[in-house]
Amino acid sequence: MVTSHDVARLAGVSQATVSRALRDDPKVALDTKERVRSAAITLGYSPNPIGRALAVGRSTRVGLVVTDLENQFYSYVISPMHRELEKHGYELLLITESSEQAPVADLVAGAGLCGVVLATTTLDSVLPVRLADRGIPFVYFNRTTPNVPADSVTVDPAPGLEKLVDDLVRLGHTRVGAVFGPVNTSTGEEREQALRHILDDQGLTLARKHVRRGPFEFGTGRDAMQELLDLDDPPTVVICGNDVVALGALNTAVERGVRVPEEVSIVGFDDLPTSAWPLVRLTTVAYDLEAMSRQAARLLVERVESGESVEAGGVHTARFDTSYVPRATLGRVEG
Amino acid sequence: MVTSHDVARLAGVSQATVSRALRDDPKVALDTKERVRSAAITLGYSPNPIGRALAVGRSTRVGLVVTDLENQFYSYVISPMHRELEKHGYELLLITESSEQAPVADLVAGAGLCGVVLATTTLDSVLPVRLADRGIPFVYFNRTTPNVPADSVTVDPAPGLEKLVDDLVRLGHTRVGAVFGPVNTSTGEEREQALRHILDDQGLTLARKHVRRGPFEFGTGRDAMQELLDLDDPPTVVICGNDVVALGALNTAVERGVRVPEEVSIVGFDDLPTSAWPLVRLTTVAYDLEAMSRQAARLLVERVESGESVEAGGVHTARFDTSYVPRATLGRVEG
């Protein structure tokens, strides 16, 4: 982004003089003012980039911030979100937040975005605070953080998990294991609490030794499954925080020659296209990810176009229902 | 992007007056000039946004343009490219070119990008022409187009395909089938020509009825495999344009209960992480996609920082070698 430093350099004056000249301070000489203004125009500098976008009402660029693009989950979010935004005359820019050092908030402001969808925000992320400070509208996607209120699109894991646990009981599972998501995400925390609560209602317990935890990644499921299968009394079913984790677990079982579901059952959450492959047939919990992605786009567009602040009008929340998708990786306990 | 129309509207003058005022045309009244300049500064308008970025030398935003983000291939490109750019002090913005109507070239200019990596350009795309016209540096990634010269990072399919065809001969395959990529991409065309040439050298032919063609997508392999398996004399091996297509073909075989490789062999190209899953074990052709992604980032950074035009100094090309990765989906012809 062009800064007042750049203008100062080009005009050959101090940064303070740039500020004074652009406020039309009478103490600045006329030819200095002229030089500063001409430099500002050459560089396309505006003292207030957000004000600029709002004043013109012309920025139609929406940013989607994600951390882990290697996670195939996001590739199914981007296309519907992109199409929905396009329908409303907006474009989508993807911003990857690969490191804590990356000044993503500056990047968002610098790229002249009219709004942002946050898809991988951790509970301790500073990005929501920074965006709120700068007055950039944003929507939480599949995540929330408690401290900064904003519109959100989330999933209610309970209905799908309830049907799943009914099936666990019916199939005779008593040694239940789980690979939960990270504790610093609302999604990980919420799915874990819902599952624990529902298992409890059905009189099933999660033994501590049968629980693993980690990022929503393939490697988390792979490593957790190695450890669980090495136990003297491995769980009869492993419920994973999402499908990508479950795919990691499933591949470990296949690699070790452990039959699924005869020797161990595996369950996911998300119902990604890969999970429905004839080669995979993962039992999982589903929701309408495409509709959710479109809804996030619509909430953001409404927020941008109304110009209404969260403080003034409150937040809009959309919560999506879940369903249980029985396939081939959950079966009856043998022996 | 802020345009001279916006400035005209805010200043309450015509667009022509904006142009004249900013050139300091003596025919424009002093107070009108003042009003136009003030509006330009408020809006951050510059008569020449490219000149602005070059003059300041401060834009460090690189765009990656891809069409089909649901294709998992790209998710493995983005992370290494992002990390390499970050090392050089640049950020990555992802731009999805979802429709022909999308004014991607305008978006690229409007977002103030210093350069672009083109990853899904078709041979007839206008984007390279538009970028060249605007003087925005770009690099072709895994693609080229013949008309607009630029730096490129591509793959040489021949070494890997030669070893693959050696193995086809050794394993007794004579009815060879193929699912090629789209004819309007250099990648599709080049892989097809290389394979045809190498098969020919080994005395193998591709019967027309055993050849299918389509976009580099899962559905292409799925549908092609249905048709090929319905033939009276299906091919004994199906060579696919990439791994995603091969995964579609493999899942169709599994769904139909056709044993791979006992009844039909399937081969891919790319060696995506999914292809190495114990559940998949796809025989394929590999190259160093991560190194390629990093190299594209480096070529672009060099081009941006040197400021050297393609016309003045010629193009830089990096070509990556391929190798053959035998796994479980290619076997001996039975019977």
TrEMBL record, chains A, B:
Domain of life from the UniProt record: Bacteria
Single GO MF annotation: transcription cis-regulatory region binding
Listed InterPro entries: HTH_LacI, LacI/GalR-like_sensor, Lambda_DNA-bd_dom_sf, Peripla_BP_I
HTH lacI-type domain boundaries: 2-56
Keyword Transcription included in the entry's annotation: yes
Keywords carried by this UniProt record: DNA-binding, Transcription, Transcription regulation
CDD domains per the UniProt record, alphabetical: HTH_LacI, PBP1_LacI-like
S-adenosyl-L-methionine recorded as keyword: no
PANTHER family for this protein: HTH-TYPE TRANSCRIPTIONAL REGULATOR GALS, LACI-RELATED TRANSCRIPTIONAL REPRESSOR
Name of the featured protein: LacI family transcriptional regulator
Organism: Nocardioides albertanoniae
Lineage of producing organism: Bacteria, Bacillati, Actinomycetota, Actinomycetes, Propionibacteriales
